[in-house]
Design a protein that fits this description.
Helix content: over 70%
Largest sheet: none
Shape: elongated
Number of strands: 0
GO molecular function, one term: protein-transporting ATPase activity
InterPro entries: SecG
Main location: membrane
Number of helices: 3
Radius of gyration: 18 Å
Order of helices and strands: HHH
Family: Belongs to the SecG family.
Strand content: under 5%
Distance between the termini: 13 Å
Subcellular location: Cell membrane
């Protein structure tokens, strides 16, 4: 059980990292401070972005459930 949760935690961690990096940047950051953030985003959020948001949220929920599960197993069994 513990090994399974650890494997799922590792895979969800990798997936969440990948999905977060696939997101399009929304803020200007330091580039807007020096005039690099002059781009205008005329297109709204697309279906792909909405689906990417959903997958990222699902992956984050799986990650949190694995962490809580491992902590509960460690507290009550170990």
């Amino acid at each position: 059980m513990v090994l399974t949760l650890q494997i799922v935690l590792f895979l969800s961690c990798l997936g969440m990292t990948m999905f977060v990096l696939l997101h399009k940047g929304k803020g200007g950051g330091l580039s807007s401070l020096f005039g690099g953030g002059v781009q205008s985003n005329l297109s709204g959020s697309t279906v792909v972005e909405k689906n990417l948001d959903r997958v990222t949220i699902i992956c984050a929920i799986i990650w949190i459930v694995c962490i809580v599960g491992l902590n509960l197993i460690h507290a009550y069994v170990g």
